[in-house]
Amino acid sequence: MGRNLQRRLRPIDLAREHGLSTQAVRNYEDAGILPGAERTPHGYRTYTELHAQALRAFLALIRGHGHPTATAVMQAVNRGAVEDALRLIDESHAQLLDDRRTLDAVEAALGDLDPVPQERGDTFVGPLARRLGIRPATLRTWERAELVKPRRDPRTGYRIYSAADVRDALLVHQLRRGGYLLEQIAPVIAQVRSAGGVAPLGSMLSDWRARLSARGRAMLTGAAALEAHLISPGFQPGL
């Protein structure tokens, strides 16, 4: 194993394994993603299996954590701050958990919504506020955040909520009860509107859950690749 770790590799050797350019490999070293390479008397970079392992770990981490976090993790590892690297990974896992909880809340909120048929007709701020158990001022706050968009009666100036507006208000109310901020709710409402209602969102939510699952599994793969790098006999943090 020791001889294998000392085997000299060229930038092209690392690049070919992953379909990268040699310049990309050099850029990764310059960015601190790979350990520093030795140079030949003519100035050519020479890598070892340790560098190849670091590159595998980095590319695996990207798939689960994204490029910025993967970069920060490998930079921390290479400067000897392994605890900092692990903390970054923990934070990324926490974000995934938060995303899962958000999805659960959205699915629960959508499931709790009563159908809002168009024939139900329009309503006004007072009756809608009473139905939701909130103050009219709260509905006006949601309107300023563009979460609900009632039209105005041209004669009286009163706000008039259509069936779609009521649907949006019900969804906002459910998510607010789940502890979500208005800025977190806004993208969900935008999705409901672009889908033309709640029903077409089923496939979107299924896709969302599949992407979260794929991300979670990619994180496992990235963790395994990083662990393989950290336990390598040739690994010396900070060098």
Automatic annotation (TrEMBL):
Parts of the chain that traverse the membrane: none
Record flagged with keyword DNA-binding: yes
Superkingdom of origin: Bacteria
Name used for this protein in its record: TioE family transcriptional regulator
Pfam families: MerR, MerR_1
Keywords: DNA-binding
HTH merR-type domain residues: 14-56, 125-191
InterPro entries given in the database record: DNA-bd_dom_put_sf, MerR-type_HTH_dom, MerR_fam
CDD domains recorded: HTH_TioE_rpt2
Keyword Iron: no
Native organism: Allokutzneria multivorans
